[in-house]
Prior knowledge:
Elements: H1 2-18, H2 36-42, H3 67-71, E1 78-84, H4 89-97, H5 104-118, E2 127-130, H6 135-141, H7 145-157, E3 166-168, H8 180-187, E4 191-193, H9 198-201, E5 205-213, H10 217-228, E6 233-241
Parallel strand pairs: 1-6, 2-5, 5-6
Antiparallel strand pairs: 3-4
Helix pairs in contact: 5-7
InterPro entries: ComF/GntX_DNA_util-trans, PRTase-like, PRTase_dom
Pfam families: Pribosyltran
Family: Belongs to the ComF/GntX family.
Amino acid sequence: MYLQQIWRKSWQASLAQLLPCSCALCHAQNRDVICEQCLTSYFPRDLCRCEQCGLVMPPGANTPRCGDCLQNPPAFDNTIVACDYEAPQDRLVLSLKFGHHLALAPVFAAMLRDAILHQQHQELPDWLCVVPLSHNRLTERGFNQALEIARPLALHLGIPLHPQALRKTRETAKQSSLAPDARMRNVKNAFVPDDQLLQTIKGRHIGIVDDVITTGMTLHEIATMLKRFGARKVSNYVFARTPHHIY
């Protein structure tokens, strides 16, 4: 047994040299995808965020919602994010979405799980769904990054996932290519629920998973549609939140 343990440790050390692992952000040698120092620096847990849209609140804010949400409340009820969409965290999103580094999706899911569980006062949804891609976009990319994140997240939280709960009815321009005031028109009436789930929406708390939230217009349109069909509450679980000053 002792010789087996020595052999196993030697084999693991040799394997680590053959397959070195480095932090995806700082590239320091590390056994985890993101090292502890980068987790502390770029994924802080103590930030005060707007509970409805996920924006970082200004110091000394004495309200749970930001000024934008107070003046123009979105249709969704709350948003939980793991980080801000800015350098260097944005590289992770780009690597998943355009670099096809699907191994990052479970990492995003684990960070989202921790962010969700950190908000102990928030109730968990009855089930999860994802922001759908259009047929052409899905064919072009080959996968839906939101679904890749949602699968492990649903397992972490012990919540059912309905991957086909929503579908996109038409092609839309990329939201990132549009001015903020044009984004609402771009996604207006672009989403519908699956016919087989219509009866399960009424009275339910539904969680929507995505990779990035910028102005929130896509998630607002989806939440508007879900509440039209009777959803009681809609929560967003998004890996990264674009800071207000960037868009």
